[in-house]
Design a protein that fits this description.
With 135 residues, the protein is an all-alpha fold. It has four helices and no strands. The protein has helices at 2-42, 48-73, 80-97, 102-134. The radius of gyration is 20 Å and the shape is flat. The relative contact order is 0.07.
């Protein structure tokens, strides 16, 4: 009974993830259309912020799709490395959008530094475990 429930939940979760991935891909396509319209059709000055916002949003969605694929490939497990990388990207997006407040910019850069150090420590730990296993 327990094995059937696990299998059913796994199937339901995969279906929902597939639906979410399709919706994200549709939204990414709409973003590309909007970027195209802003660059080639309207061709007016002052749209740089809007274009940058669409492009940054597109890459956030792209990373989410990659994370979802990694989740499915790794037997429903998301490595912390990917979560940290997505967090860094989200903070960079915020930093690019809101860059006129010095205090907030400083806090965002400190957050990026902290997450970068976290990635470095994770890689150190992984390397030490690999060395320990080889002995």
């Amino acid at each position: 009974m327990e094995e059937k429930l696990k299998m059913l939940l796994s199937i339901v979760m995969n279906v929902f993830l597939s639906i979410l991935a399709i919706l994200i891909l549709i939204y990414m396509g709409l973003d590309l259309v909007n970027i195209f319209k802003l660059i080639f059709i309207q061709n007016k000055m002052g749209y740089i912020d809007t274009i940058a916002d669409y492009i940054l949003g597109f890459f956030m969605l792209f990373e989410f799709i990659i994370m979802t694929l990694k989740y499915i490939e790794d037997a429903h497990n998301v490595p912390i490395k990917y979560l940290v990388l997505i967090s860094i990207t989200a903070i960079l997006r915020q930093l690019l959008v809101v860059h006129n407040n010095g205090g907030q910019t400083l806090l965002l850069t400190i957050a990026i530094l902290t997450l970068t150090l976290t990635l470095y420590l994770l890689e150190l730990i992984k390397a030490k475990e690999k060395i320990r296993k080889n002995k």
